[in-house]
Design brief:
This protein has helices at about 1-10, 15-65, and strands at about 70-75, 80-90, 105-120, 125-130, 150, 155-160, 165-175, 175-180, 185. A five-stranded antiparallel sheet has the order 1-2-3-4-5, with helices on one face. Strands 6, 7, 8 and 9 form a four-stranded antiparallel sheet that branches. It is built from two helices and nine strands; from the N terminus they run H-H-E-E-E-E-E-E-E-E-E. The longest helix has about 55 residues, at about 15-65. The relative contact order is 0.14. The protein is rod-shaped. By secondary structure, the chain is of the alpha+beta class.
């Protein structure tokens, strides 16, 4: 008889409040753990994405620098100017009065591939011109269009040219993640 009476009683209000408090504490701990894991994942993913973009950008810059045979840095416009110059010797006809004189040769230089990499303080742009491009005016203004975007997250860009050594360094920032890249200088062969 005593056992049957206790079964019909159910839970007391105090027992329900205690069990709900324990459940709330466990639920809160699980929620904090999940948020911490999610935040850690997001930060790691942002850092990896930034590292991947910086490696891709550095590889592109290295390739462009190594393919060019003339490199200049315009510090006024904060632009790296890379171009390929083809030198051709062209024979000029001998003067009309000279008998069997050897022709004179004149060296003609043509810019066949011009690339301008410009940093505007927040983004890095690439402007390309393929055949017979005119060299940009020294200290003149350079305009790059948004569709020529090379990198979106660059917030510092420096170039140091000493002889045939070209050193490019840059910093990238995305959200709270900041990454500095400073490779060893590349030694270009003089032509």
């Amino acid at each position: 008889d005593v056992y049957k009476r206790q079964d019909k009683r159910g839970y007391t209000l105090v027992e329900l409040i205690i069990s709900m408090a324990i459940l709330a504490i466990v639920g809160g701990a699980i929620t904090l753990l999940m948020q911490s894991g999610s935040r850690s994942y997001s930060n790691t993913k942002a850092e990896l994405d930034l590292q991947m973009e910086s490696q891709t950008l550095m590889a592109q810059l290295n390739t462009m620098i190594m393919e060019s045979n003339c490199v200049k840095y315009d510090d006024v416009n904060n632009a790296l100017i890379l171009y390929q110059i083809d030198c051709k010797k062209t024979a000029t006809p001998a003067p009309s009065g000279a008998a069997s004189a050897a022709p004179e040769y004149v060296q003609v230089k043509n810019v066949t591939d011009l690339k301008i990499i410009k940093f505007d303080g927040q983004k890095l742009y690439l402007e390309e011109h393929k055949s017979d491009a005119a060299l940009p005016a020294s200290r003149g203004g350079l305009n790059c269009q948004p569709e020529e975007l090379l990198s979106d997250y660059v917030n510092d860009f420096k170039v140091d040219i000493k002889g045939s050594n070209v050193t490019v360094s840059f910093a990238m920032k995305s959200g709270n993640c900041l990454l500095y890249t400073s490779p060893s200088p590349r030694d270009r062969q003089k032509s």
